[in-house]
Write a structure and sequence with these properties.
The chain is built from 13 helices and 22 strands. The protein is an alpha+beta fold. Strands 11, 13, 14, 15, 16, 19, 20, 21 and 22 form a nine-stranded antiparallel β-sheet that branches. A hairpin with a 2-residue loop joins strand 13 and strand 14. Helix 1 crosses helix 3, helix 7 crosses helix 11 and helix 11 crosses helix 12. The N and C termini lie far apart (69 Å).
């Protein structure tokens, strides 16, 4: 029987995509709807995300580690606390092995009036900085807008142990702090959720009166007793159990959260094709649910592309010739084919897997960019959230035309116009789980160039659009124990859930940042590719380019 019920609301802090798996005439990937057409989040999706988080936290309390964290034990029976709470992953060989879930997760129903939108995605060619048509990297998906609110209801059966309650409470505490993620395209800005208005109810069915009242009432919380402070008590108790600092990359050990304002010095537009058609302009800023949006995927692409440039530039300075560079090449072109310069790691690893079918792909077999930003063989742990306008929008209409190189006049058919956001400011958040210090160092170098106005975002870079600077940078660092705090920082007295946290201004931690950048240089200088995972060629070390444009001999 049910002994506890936890209720609340799931608030979307960014756009949200819970795919249905279907393909429609409107979009490649619509969101999931029930038979009545209402947008819902399946209970299985919520429970799966919560279980994944609980699995990666449980080992820190000294509890038995789930076999889900062991790549070589996928078929074995597991009786860890998480499997006993959420249900066994595998049934085991004997009929008495395996347990059903003690958690009943209800579907989450959309409670407010939110209009979905179709979001386009496209891959950007690293050389031309335009759409990568050769890679056929165009796609679209339906997105539930920011600030959408869903119902949340979780019922717990009897027989749940104290340690299982602590694991569950610590996972819920992370969601309450806004560090929950659901659905697809999480690394590209979607899926960040927060659990709000949490209430915990206990149901006592030991008497006939309580049992009858429970059976007659449609809403069981009306005949239950609210346990105020349950989440705080259980979370604090779980925090006191933290004993070990297991250095397992599959566990949830630490996080770094960067918050800053992107301020555009001029015009800015990321085209919304549907809005452009409706407005009659060729280009129109992206809007969702009536609000202007800077998609996290767009900013993430800019950050990755610039990080690749930094890494390749430094490697070029320290390379003797083309072969030496290719062996050291720290960043592939993710859209490059087999015979294209800077062949993508996905292509190289696919060829490698054909010859070594049983071999697991390791991090060191990928370039540094794919290790950090992800590839087909490794998901990224860096989530770049959507940016949302924090000031009143100013709109300008701009006309563009091309000049005929022979006549000096306007080229026929080459005129277009655009609605442009003028000098907008967007609030942006980047979240990294289990960051390595070299990754922080590389990200700090990118952030510095952003701050110095050296990076453009959006359409029209050559038309002086998209120029941006960074303001109000702050970094939040969370660690399960002092062993996971980045170099140069000290443990604080502040806690969020079970994580020791501290919020710092970027300008106040120049010494730690220097250590992280130094670690990036160290990793970069020691990076070497395996002989069968070397790109075919490079864009710089070919023909007479090194002679025409000699590289610098020092920094």
């Amino acid at each position: 029987m049910i002994e506890k019920i936890i209720t609340g609301r799931l608030k979307a802090l960014t756009g949200l995509h819970i795919g249905s798996g279907d393909l429609t005439e409107t979009t490649d990937s619509p969101v999931f709807r029930n038979s009545d057409g209402a947008i819902i989040i399946h209970g299985t999706a919520i429970a799966g995300s919560l279980r994944s988080l609980a699995t990666r936290l449980a080992s820190h309390f000294g509890f038995k580690e789930c076999i889900a964290l062991d790549e070589n034990s996928s078929s074995k029976f597991c009786n860890c606390p998480v499997c006993n709470l959420f249900g066994s992953i595998n049934s085991g060989k004997n009929s008495n092995e395996g347990t059903a879930s003690k958690i009943w997760m209800s579907d989450a129903i959309l409670e407010n009036d939110s209009k979905t939108s179709i979001r386009d995605g496209v891959g950007i060619d690293r050389e031309t900085r335009t759409s990568s048509r050769a890679a056929q990297a165009k796609y679209d998906l339906e997105v539930i807008p920011k600030d959408s609110v869903f119902s949340f209801k979780l019922a717990i059966e009897g027989g749940v142990t104290e340690e299982q309650e602590k694991i569950l409470s610590c996972a819920l505490a992370e969601w309450r702090k806004g560090r929950g993620y659901l659905g697809g395209n999480v690394a590209r800005g979607l899926g960040n959720i927060q659990l709000i208005e949490i209430k915990v109810f206990s149901i006592n069915l030991s008497s006939i009166e309580n049992l009858m009242a429970f059976l007659k009432e449609d809403d069981p919380t009306k005949v239950a007793d609210e346990e105020k402070g349950w989440l705080e008590v259980k979370t604090n108790s779980g925090r006191s159990l933290i004993k070990c600092s297991t250095n397992n990359e599959y566990l949830y050990n630490s996080f770094v959260q960067l918050d800053f304002t992107l301020k555009f010095t001029g015009g800015f537009v990321i085209n919304d094709v549907l809005k452009a058609v409706q407005s009659g302009f060729d280009f129109c800023p992206r809007m969702e649910n009536g609000n202007f949006v800077l998609p996290g995927s767009s900013l993430r692409g800019v950050i990755r592309s610039h990080a690749e440039k930094i890494a390749r530039s430094l490697a070029t300075l320290n390379s003797k010739n083309a072969y030496d560079f290719l062996m050291k090449c720290p960043a592939c072109n993710p859209f490059a084919g087999k015979e294209t310069p800077l062949t993508s790691c996905n292509i190289l690893l696919r060829e490698h897997k054909r010859k070594h079918k049983d071999e697991e792909i390791k991090d060191e077999q990928m370039c540094l960019a794919c290790q950090f930003f992800g590839s087909s063989y490794k998901g990224s742990k860096m989530y770049v959230g959507d940016g949302y306008l924090i000031d009143s929008p100013k709109i300008k209409i701009m006309d563009f035309l091309a000049i005929d190189r022979f006549t000096g006049g306007v080229r026929e058919g080459a005129k277009f116009d655009a609605l442009v956001l003028w000098q907008p400011s967007f609030k942006v958040r980047i979240f990294i789980e289990n960051p390595k210090e070299w990754q922080l160092g590389l990200l700090m170098l990118v952030l510095k160039d952003l701050k110095d106005g050296l990076i453009s975002v959006g359409f029209g870079e050559n038309k002086w659009l998209g120029k941006v600077i960074v303001e109000n940078e702050a970094i939040k660092v969370g660690a399960i124990s002092k062993d996971f705090i980045p170099s140069g920082l000290k443990i604080s007295s502040s806690y969020e859930g079970i994580f020791n946290t501290q919020i710092l201004k970027i300008d106040s931690i120049s010494e730690p940042i220097e250590l992280w950048v130094r670690e990036f240089h160290n990793i970069l200088s020691n990076f070497r590719r395996e002989n069968n995972l070397v790109p075919t060629s490079d864009t710089y070390f070919k023909d007479d380019i090194p002679n025409l444009y000699p590289k610098e001999v020092g920094i």
